Amino acid sequence: MTTNNIKFKVQAGGKLFGRIRVPGDKSISHRSIMLGSLAEGTTQITGFLEGDDSLATLKAFQEMGVNIIGPNNGDITIQGVGLTGLKKPNKPLDMGNSGTAMRLMSGILAGQPFSTELIGDASLSTRPMKRVTKPLSAMGATISTANNGMPPLKISPSSALNAIDYVMPMASAQVKSCVLFAGLYAKGTTTVIEPAPTRNHTEKMLNGFGYEVVSEKIDNLKTKISIKGGGLLKANDIDVPSDISSAAFFIVAATIADDANLVIEHVGINPTRTGILDVLKLMGAKITLENEILVGGEPVADIRVKSAKLKGINIPEELVPLAIDEFPVIFVAASTAAGKTVLTGAEELRVKESDRIQVMADALTAIGVLAKPTTDGMIITGGKQSKQSSKILSHHDHRISMAMVIAGLNATDEIVIDDCANVNTSFPNFVELINQIGMQLTVEKDG
Ligand code: S3P
User: Which atom of ligand 1 is nearest to the CA of 177?
Assistant: First the structure.
């Protein structure tokens, strides 16, 4: 990560138009490196996200002896080493800012015959890891956190992992994926029950690599996912679609700008990721899908967005896990809506790259929005703004930096956002695309 402080300065207002393509999906990019490395044979990846988070995963597998060529404009070739072919790295593996990398890797590393240590940056070092060490310990893994339940994670070889039946206490795709990855190395069939649907890329991609994963609905919300240990992964080429979580900033931007008509091309619209579209449509957004196709088993479409007058809503709780990364920018949309928007059932937002409830409440309050944080959500009263201060802190969180750029469209004055180098974790060409569609964003470097 760069040591220079990067500041964003956003001019108020803007008219948005054009066609853009945002970078590759972060969740799929991480998993493509993990599965390609553990497969037998050569995997070709196109559309890989060249952001710091997915590059941390790539580097970690290189440090465990996997020959990975690229990325070169999103193209990567991986010579897979098979499930048992990884080598002991000679230093701790640095996961940077990425909770996904640390939690998913912990499941894979719990099954290795060598010890490893996973470390992260200041933000990742304050994130809860007991949610993965608990099920992994129950499987027989030897894994520890620091005293506070946070990174670093230290993993030592165990004689064998046993399958478990795990009822997840929270709706988390990271925890589910961690346990399923450990399940590859366990004796017997591991099952995970999720309390509500979460992104299912791990299950779909394991199936794509020729490894059977069975998902059965238990009721309206709960799903049971099973995997039997001891099989093998077969190399599988992957075309990574654009990330709906990155598209989200532009979807909200075009919705709240005056006179906008914007197309975001080739975006992954897996139904476990499209909560943002449902929330915005309930608020009155004008969003249409064009050119829907299937790419490597994942649905993809061009998303057309036109300006709309939004109204406040009570966000249905079942949409929360399906829009989990999009709330910073959904809060921005709510701040422009007529009436109140109420979010509940979203306590997980407090343990993301920052406490996204508190940090967004503070940032929106600073630009004059009525935003009241609650233990598990937020109440935002949209409409008129009366600026208190235009200086925003991102708290090491890429999605806060980007959401507050979009807030500039409805601001009365210039907004300055401090500490924005983190945008590189998921969206390296964000500034370029924001300016391309008609907003005015400048970057200043200190130090
Ligand atoms: C992710 C799952 C989500 C999400 C994160 C990426 C993944 O976390 O917030 O950005 O790739 O599995 P949780 O599953 O912990 O909610």
Answer: 12
